[in-house]
Amino acid sequence: MDTTNGTLDEALERLHTTGPEFHGFLSNHGPMAVEALVRRGQARTVHGWVDRYVTKLEDVPSPQSPVTDANWQQALGDPRRVTDWTTYMRNQVAERPWREVLAEWWPRLLPGIAGAATHPVIRVGHAVRTLLEEGEEEPRIAELAHALGYWAARHTTLPVTVRPTGTASPADALAALPHVTNQRVGVLEGVAQLSRTEGWLAAAEAVNTPEAPDAARVQLAALVRAATHRYLDYGHGDAVLLVHAATAPNAVLRTLPALPPELWAASLGAAWAASAAITSVYTPDEPLPPLRAGKLTPEEVFAQATEHGDEHAIKFTDTALDIDSWTPDGDDRALAAALRSQELIRRVE
Description:
The protein is mainly alpha-helical. The chain has 17 helices and two strands.
């Protein structure tokens, strides 16, 4: 990742003058997308992409009342307080090392991973990846504060508590999940159906979620791979929202190295619950026919995502390239899933 020309930092500073949502509830994907573009060698496209994207964004919401160490629990999950939360988190990372702030707030926020369709945790994952691997420049630390503040404001728990105790692999467990009755709904309406979906909790708890940190990390990577592979066949259920069944657990995986190992098992459990919920809400009953595409390199696949222009296609392709890098011979199915997302998601004109 080449950030020597300041492209990422400049883009983040531009995006930090905009709000975390627009049109009422849609998440601002700008910081996540530009991080992926720069990381994957597409820095030259970033400012043009931002120029187009900011035209639909909105101003930073007005502050309401300061979040403090004494009242944060009352403010948790209140989207009206998002600017208050961002200010609080920016003060936190100004006063203490960002890793310390993250370790304190991660277990507080983790139960609300489903908030805003998992976008806040995904934003955290992109921010942490850059801080860990590319340096701790001020705009990158500020981005983590924005991401944590957004998560706190949109903190939302699932309507059913999942306590996995089974032995199934993530791939088998995802395949066994029953689907909700009405899939033509928003995320909140969809996950509200889980508690009355026969057999859902038993199926969700059948996955193996080991307690040992290293084993939990391996299982989390297996979940990311399984969810990405399933998109190839079932992404048409909801081309955009099913992306998050893979990108949310991958955000958690990217964050693990910055967290104390004793938090890794709980992180796996929360990531699994979120991915399982999205899978059940939007996966259709019938798979798509095989994708007919020539073999492309990872760089070519991401270049196509960049040209496609949609933020979800960019982020999902970024996750697919992670998976491809995990094995010496690559992962053709993950790359094909990325191409499927570019086929199913509307191209930016």
